[in-house]
Amino acid sequence: ATGFIRSLTLWSLNAAISQARAWYEEGFEISVGVNLSARILHDGSFPDRIEELLETHGIGPRSLNWKSPKA
User: Fold this and answer.
1) Residues 62, 27 contacting (CB under 8 angstroms)
2) Residues with Cβ < 8 Å from 3, sequence gap 6 or more?
């Protein structure tokens, strides 16, 4: 993934996961969805970054859904 796409994707994921946590703290168990670039899926460190974000915000993986458009 290009540096810009990777940065933007991680920023979007962080914002979405942070919002899911905020809703959870208010009593709502809502999953959030993020569209991902197909390029980011080729980044070998991407799964680790997702895991870090989920752990940082105290959210389980079921709270995150993603979709990648066809290339």
Assistant:
1) no
2) none
